[in-house]
Specification:
Elements (H helix, E strand, L loop, with lengths): L2 H16 L9 E9 L4 E5 L12 H11 L5 E10 L5 E2 L4 H9 L1 E9 L2 E4 H4 L14
Parallel strand pairs: 3-5
Antiparallel strand pairs: 1-2, 1-3, 3-4, 5-6
Bound molecules: tetrahydrodeoxyuridine.
Length: 137
Amino acid sequence: MDESELWPRLGAAALAALENAYVPYSNFRVGAAALTGEGRVVSGCNIENAAYGVTLCAECSMVGELFATGGGTLSHFVCYGGLQGETAQLITPCGRCRQLLYEHRGPDLRIKTANGVVGIDQLLPDAFGPHNLSRQP
Ligand code: THU
């Protein structure tokens, strides 16, 4: 599938997930979707909590689906968000979720943003990652 077909497909999956968001506190619904290296589409929505810090971002529940459906890595990612009753817009992931994407990225993860398609290095330069936990120089 070329990118002209892929992004609309992922966008539709993200917007469908957004419809299921549980956001009684912020009223800000988020839907995330990605293509995996194995060709699956995974998606997620944000799930808030009365203990605000326990809230799951859409990317968190998407990574849950990634693993629940067999694991793998992410090759293309998109995320939409918006206040209930307003039109959702492309959003770039929060800092924590950039770290999640970094961990589960494929060799060339492409991320669609309002400013174009970027790589994870642009969103999270000099990332902390598995290499930091290795004793190898
Ligand atoms: N949120 C996400 O789901 N993903 C992000 O990348 C940014 C923020 C959610 C968390 C919370 O439920 C709401 O958006 C407002 O911050």
